[in-house]
Design goal:
Length: 114
């Protein structure tokens, strides 16, 4: 079964950067598309980015040019590099394997504030 553990969040000033990590425990991600989602207080969970097993990447318009999704299959890890952060990026960030139902992890909280 899929078990994903997110980490790397924290408090950062506007314009700053963070790198989030998502480790898949107990199963390989090498053949699967992986995605990042986020959920801000009072809002629905929204799709942020995804990366296919061929390293094709796709982004929500709100983060294009600022965020980069990547993967390290040997480490069974997906990353989200977030640059030029804005207060609107404040949310709990989650990762997900695309195309399968699985439980959401705990997520990692990102707060962008001065």
């Amino acid at each position: 079964q899929v078990q994903l553990v997110e980490s790397g969040g924290g408090l950062v000033q506007p314009g700053g950067s963070l790198r989030l990590s998502c480790v898949a425990a107990g199963s390989s991600i090498s053949l699967y598309t992986m995605a990042w989602y986020r959920q801000a207080p009072g809002k629905e969970r929204e799709w942020v980015a995804e990366i296919t097993r061929f390293d094709d990447t796709y982004y929500a318009n709100s983060v294009k040019g600022r965020f980069t999704i990547s993967r390290d299959n040997a480490e069974n890890t997906v990353y989200l590099q977030m640059n030029s952060l804005k207060p609107d990026d404040t949310a709990v960030y989650y990762c997900k394997r695309v195309g399968i139902n699985h439980n959401w992890g705990q997520g990692t909280q990102v707060i962008v504030s001065s």
